[in-house]
Amino acid sequence: MSIEFRNGSMQLKSRLFGLVSKVYNRVDLTERILFLNRQVGIRRSKDEGERDKTAVNYYDLVRRFQAQIQALSEVGKLNLILHRHIGDSFVVLNIIQQEIDNFETKVNIILRKEHEDIMRLFPKFRYKVFDIECFFPDQDYRKKENFNKKRTSDLLIENVFERAFIAIPQLSAPFILSPIDIDRVNLPYANFVNGWARMLGFNTKKIKLSPTRILVSSTIKSKYGISDLSKVVLLCPSANSVKSSIGGYWDSLIDELELMGLSVFINSTSCDKFHKRRTINFELSELISIGQNCRAVVTLRSGLSDILAPLQKKLVIINPPDVDIDYLEINQNYVLDFYPLEIVLKKKVTMLDIKLAVRKTLDFFL
Questions:
Q1: Residues 347 and 130: beta-carbon distance below 8 Å
Q2: Which of 51, 81, 110, 355 has the fewest CB atoms within 10 Å, i.e. is most exposed?
Q3: Which helix (H) or strand (E) segment is 80 a member of?
Q4: What is the reported pLDDT for 266?
Q5: pTM of the model
C-alpha cells in the first residue's frame, strides 16, 4: 500500500534534522540581476564608458530595499519582518499571539504586501507592509515547466533578506527569522511550529488555533456566481512549494463531486486549466472566506492548509511524496477542536490507492 491516512492519531516520529546548506547558482543569480535591471530601468549610459549597458550596481538596489524596510520600523519595538511564504507567516503570528505575555516589548509586524489579507485573522496586531516587487519584480510562473524557476526565485529573494537583515531579535532595527544551523544540529526542531518558535526564542511545539470567521461578501458571491455555499467544494491542487503528480486523484474526485450535484471551484496559480477544467486564481482573501464557509476544502499541502486548519470536519489535505510529513503534519503542529484528514501519498501510487483516497475524502466531509 502506497498511501497513508492521518487524522490526529499518528505519533510524531523522532527525527534528526541535519545541517542544511543553500547553494546559489552564480549563473542564475547573474541572469536574475540582469533581468531585474531591465525591469527597474537601472542602466549605465554609454557616456560612462561601460561595456555592458545592462550592468547594475546590485548593492545599491539592495540598499534601497533595506531603506524601505528601515523606514517601516518603530523605535523601541521588535520590528519583525515576515519574509517567507504565507504559511510561515501564519505560524509565526500564531506563536507570537500565544506567547505574547512573554514578550517584554511590543512587536511591530512588517510583512509582504501580498500577504496582508491574513492580518484580518489577527485584528490585535500592529503591522505594516512592504512591496518587494517594486525592487525585485516577479515573473509569470503559471506554466508547469517554470516550477523550478519559481524555487530559484525564492532562493534568490531569501538570499537578499539574509544578507540585508540580521536574524537576531533586537530593538528598533528590523530583523528576520532564519534558522541558525548550529542550533538545528544540536537541538533538532520537533516540527514546523517548533522550528519557527525556536527562532523567536521559545520552545513551543504546538499552538492552539481558534478560527476567526470571515464571511463571504455579496461581491464575491456575485463575482463567482455562488448562490449556495453549502454546495460548493473548493479544490486547491497546486502549491508554490510542492509538486503534485496525482492527477488521477483529482480527476476522480471532481467526477464524483459533480455527479453529486456539487459545484467545484479549482484554485490554481500555476496553470489556466487543470486536466481540461477551468481554474480560478483566487485572491488570498477570497480563498480564506470561501474556504471557511463552503461545504468542504481539499488542498495540496500548502500555507493555505495551515490557515484553514481550524475548519470543522471539512478539510482534507493531500501530502505528495516530496512533503516531509513528520515535520509538517497539521495534526502534530496544532491543537484543534476537530482535526482534518491528511492523506499521505508515497512515491508509487496505484489506481487502487487513488480510489481508496477518493472514497476516504468523500466519507470524511459528506
A1: no
A2: 51
A3: strand 78-82
A4: 93
A5: 0.80
